[in-house]
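Contributing: when you submit paired examples, paste them exactly as shown. First protein:
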Amino acid sequence: MATLADDGPLPSLSEIKGANAHVNDNGYVLLTATRPVGPYLAWMWLRLGLTPRQVNYLSIVLGIVLLALAASGAPQGALGATLLCFLWQAIDVSDGTMARSLGIKDNFGGFVDYSSGMLIVAFLPFCLGMGLSVNSDGSLNGLATLVGYSVSLPDYTPLIIGAAISIISLYMRLINRILQIRFGDSLSEDDSEASSGLSSRLRWVAKNLETIGGLQAVFFFIAAAIAQLEAALFAYGIFYVLLFGAFIVSVYRGYGEKRAYLS
């Protein structure tokens, strides 16, 4: 297969599309929705002389930009940041498409690609909470009034909620890596990490809500568009607490009786 360093022709658009023929997106909504755009972006990057790794780095830069926009508290900042998540996902699928069409295997590139996604998954709620603490949309106080809580909540309340979500997200992923080290396997995201006791439909919802490739960005984008982002962040926080509880139960059920050390 040709690489960017070869003198041979670059893969055609049809060849690039063919490289995605057997890719499994495991039911992640946004990932599946943006997958058809990947070959066109890959074709463009290749004609511009970019490598898959360079596109990886571009996705990290875009991730940092959208997080900064979310945290800025600027008018429409959260809406713009969550909209950029869709562009980020399209770019994210294009680097893998490039690598497959070129026959490139790059483990470090895969690491960078995964790290870029985790940057947004972990810190988007925190940055949205930071931005809302600067420029409130009032929906959390509206929700509090609706349930009979008449005292105005502090401006920093969304920041605390967003920080809690990000901490739980990071902690669950850290535990998953420790499981891999200690036991040789872990609770995979494909199994929704935490919801073995739920129906298949609920597992699908849970795994999609907790990651950028699923419904996380879609959920926050819709909430920002209707000026209900604070209330949505609060609801997302409740979801994450429940997810964490189910995760801990699954860890104990799956590994609590495993006493032998990994040899």
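Second protein:
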Amino acid sequence: MRSLYDTDGAWYKGNLHAHTTRSDGRLPAEQVVDFYRGAGYDFIALTDHWRQSEPLEEPGFLQLAGCEFDTGDMADLVRQPVFHIVGVGMERAVALPKAHDHPPQTLIDAIREAGGLAILAHPAWSLTDPALVPPLSGLSAAEVFNTFSGLPHSNARPESSLYFDIWALQGFLLPCTAADDCHWYEGEQGRSFMMVNAPALTAPAIRAAIAAGNFYASQGPRFEEICYDGETVEVSCSGVQTVIFYSNTLYSADRLTLAEAGGTVTTARYAVKPTDRYVRVELIDARGRHAWSAPFAVEKTPGR
């Protein structure tokens, strides 16, 4: 069976979207770093608006360079759509003058030219037209969940999972990440993260693993493996209450696996339908916390 993830390395926990007093965050950088280090994170990026942070590497903890760039007009979303692009892992300063009328592709290109990875932030919060994203070139991921975009901090649009289904239906299989996007530090910190499988906790290794899509998004549940053999998708995971298999087939009786009373689910299977073109997997644990895989291409093997 083909495995969705390369698990030869170790799994590292990270948050790639957080703000400090260098822009509109309430905590200085040192306190933000101390929180995530103390909360068991392996890597972070400080992504203040239009202010690039410096990388830091120390035993057991990695800080990638980061910055959040934005374009568009929140007062005129139809004619000037809002895009927030998080750049992480840059090896040099992003050569881009601060302005809010850059095309989103310009933001992505500038991040990549600086050696970084470009991540589309909170598309549901931004009311991004999903049709505007597949033409963009060079995105490494988009946020499927952004903690700060939910209540009580923002406008109750923290989750963007429907976007990934719409894109996957068109063959645009964008990996998904989750992030806190901390500003106020009043409970949003430490709730959403990504798990990256990499050979080492170094900037080049983490950057390469993210570029290869070797990660998933979570609020707590863990994927152990997702395998596909041309007929069936099999999942192994930490103990959860629910496993959901999403696809473009609108009805399927076996896309939901529920734990029995008092128990948990650690394995689940989904038979790929002749109409399926993609599958993505979501886990939900007893505390209501989710984990999300990226959508991946499937095609039922003829004759099976």
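If you have annotations for the second protein, write them as plain sentences, like these:
The mean pLDDT is 96.
The radius of gyration is 19 Å.
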